[in-house]
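debug: dumping io for the single-chain case to check the tokenizer round-trip. Nothing else runs in this session.
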Amino acid sequence: MHPSLSAAMILLITAIAPTTSSAIPACSASSSSVTSTTSTITPVIPVQPIVTYIPPTASSQAPVTKIFSYNGGGFENLAFRSNGQILATIAFPAPLLFYIDPLSIRPTVLLQNFTALRNTLGITELAPDLFYVAGEAADGGAFSVFSVDMRPFLVLPDGTISTPPIVKEIGSIPSALALNGMTYLRRNDNFVLGADSLLGGVWKFYVDTGEFDLVIKDPSMAGPTNETEYAGYGINGLRTQNETLFYCNSGAQTFYKMLLHSDGSSAGEATLIASGIACDDFALDPWGFAYVASPRNALIKLDTRTGAQLVVAGTFNESVSDIISASSVRFGVGDSDRTSVYITTNGGAYIGASSGSQGVSRVDVGDLAQVFEGGEEEQW
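debug: decoded output
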């Protein structure tokens, strides 16, 4: 593929490439556990920003433990149930949602195959056991938001689903160009917030009515227009904390924050936290740090007050790393893993990942908590 193709073109080409989704069963009451599979999807050469990045400072490496491998699956995002179990989305080759035990006591389960979608991207829990997932229509149409109600869900110790979750489409956003990361402003609100990477803004989606508004469109969220390889690709991961929106612009390799009104609209100008940061999604702790999933094969600890970057796991910009192409990060919610983060990796699947590099890993960052001398958004 010609190196001058933009990210938008790459996304479209990836989206319309043939997939093997027909070979993956939809979720049913008799679904069984999943260990691994291999995809035959044709690799697509990734685009990388030409923006000059600032190599973050290296530190003592936090231990990385792979808890689930799924060869051929481009893991995109994850969220936690209040009981500590993980829900993880796959962007390609099929729009899947997995149920993963972070302690690896119970087998991983294929929770849902969204056959109406081409991919599954952002996911967030708005109310206890009520999740919302974004994805693009299988026919290349509008981006949609689905609800995944885990309240009736029951899985047996052998991984057999006894009672499946209730999954339904809430509505679509026809004018969205690339709905990506998702978050909320307050627990139990009636709306979620979604980043549009190609439009350069944030959508407000009402989960009770399916209505939507473009509540923020800001230059800080737009992709670079003067870069041939990543032109147009902007805001990606986003999180809120204390009425403040934090977000990363993957194309421009920048990290910002912005005050919000209670309705999710902007209450102030964007404030630049860091530039030259290779970023995708991230998690926030209560002390002013963001743990950033870097597609350059590392977990970066970012001080949101000073912009200082520290590699705490993986090997930055090296092909040999415990973390290959990280895509999202979340803190554990159980008593045993509150000082651990969980990372989804796609393993550089666009160029053909090595076996075992795609999946979900745990990184124990507790011993590194005071490196800058300084848990995630509020939990239930």
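debug: round-trip ok. The longest helix spans residues 7-16.
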